[in-house]
Model the fold of this input.
Amino acid sequence: MINKTGALLLMSAALISGCQNSTMEPEEINPEIDVCEVCNMGLAHEHFATEVVTADGEVYKFDDIGCMDEFVEMEAHLKEENAAKQYVRDVDTGEWVELEKAFHAYHPDFWTPMANGVVSFKDKESAEKYVKDQGMGEVLDYESLKKHEWSWEQ
Amino acid sequence: MWRLKKPLAIIFFLLLLFIPMNTFAEEFKVERGQSIQRAVEGARNGDTILVAPGVYKESLMINKEIYIKGEKGTIIDGGGNGNVIMVTASNVVIEGLTIQNSGSGQEDSGIYIKKAHRNVIQNNTLKDVQNGIYIANSNENQILGNSITSNESHFSKRGNGIHMFKGDGHLLKENEIVNVQDGIYFDFTKGIKVLDNHVSESRYGMHFMFSEEILAERNHVEKNVTGLMVMDSAGIDFIENKVTDQFHFRGYGILIYETKDVLVEGNEILRNSTGLSLEYGADTQVNRNQIAANQVGLEFMGKNENNTFTENNFIGNVVPSKISGEDMRLDDGVKGNYWDDYSSFDLSGDGVGEEAYKAGSLYDRLLRKQPYWQFFFESPSIKLWTKAEALFPSFGTADVYDARPLVEPVAMLQEAQHHSKDRMVPGLIGILFILLSIFVIVKGRKLS
Done:
């Protein structure tokens, strides 16, 4: 009897914790239904999409890293430590990368859905290769991205 | 007499000097099994290349002023690599070709026009291509009467029908675009006319980004996710377009975001999830539109400034207006709009209701918080609620109102024409019937 209740309790605990996104992992993009939290544009270019995942398990999706930055500025409480994680995707593979670990290629003429010109990569080599292939632009890491002036700020 | 004519004669001979230029222009014929590219290489500016029917498996690079014309059944197949036709010269005409099988890179296209001006792309069929026609850093090109579809895949994997990146003065007319990502994409462009095009079953019918001075007239966008998507642009005119059946659950007829100076006039905005949505829109004029049978007729989000709405018909929208954000007046001070859920009186008989129409009822606000309350649409309790709110109008978040609501719908021009045609036939039948009856009566009398 006790065993049964115990098992039931365990199962319900597993169920409840399963519902919460406590690990703050990013979520798959569904281009059919997902739209950018900031600008309402559909997430058609999946590899340019970004996400903010909060500690409460909320997931906010954006079509462009510029929109995510605008959102985080508006929702100041998300900047507190461990309140939220920001994710970008490696443009080549679509792999999710934490913003702090990602590298970016920037040039105003690089195409992105909202034309902010910042293209993200999982490592420095890929970003450098992109800049080399395009014949223009610069590589930004997390620290230099923080200082970057976004098109929506101008 | 001769003296008078002399200058004329000189001009005449001078003109003759210029004409022979054209007689050097040659006409080449490319037969099945030959290479079109080789003909292009052998041609000179001003030459014409006629292509016989058949499948030509090659990619073309056009770098001189030539005219390429295909007969019915002339197919150029790019073999799935890069652009099928690349144009880097001005004054080129490409006509009557079927262009298929481009590569699948982001910018791979059926026809790619790069830094080239005044080209005419006319009556071609483009299919199984990533983008249909891509026009980058070019001016005054004309894209007329083409039929464009992308490849068989989800719209997030396809390219656009016609993509314009940085350029002025293009004319897009009578193109038929189906199953692409965005039908017509304006990316940092200016001074473009878009007339009589038809875009369906794509993500956005037309997508305006960072563009200005664009006229879109008599186009039909239907069954896309969103019909007309305008972002970060200015000076856009939408005249007499049909924006219908965007019934995707996050779809809009027209969505205007962070854009100023938009004219929306004489359009039919029918059967969309949301008819017209403004978010951070300024100086928008919305006149004489039919906004009917949408899930939500009019939506305001965020801050919208200095927008006027006059003589629009809001009819049969499940939720006529869904309002959040700032206070705003909807009429222009003389005339407002017709709202079919407005129920007040016109005591003075001037066609304008005596009481202001308040947009965004309590029910709409409830719906925003609890979308499933949609279930109670038109239920007695909701009706009572709405009525009670009309009597005590103070719960509102944003005060958006039409101070000059019209008590009768505005007669639209297109509608009037339809009616006159529609009435002709029953009228004629009626007259015939009356004549027949009279004939029978008279004849019958004589017989009896």
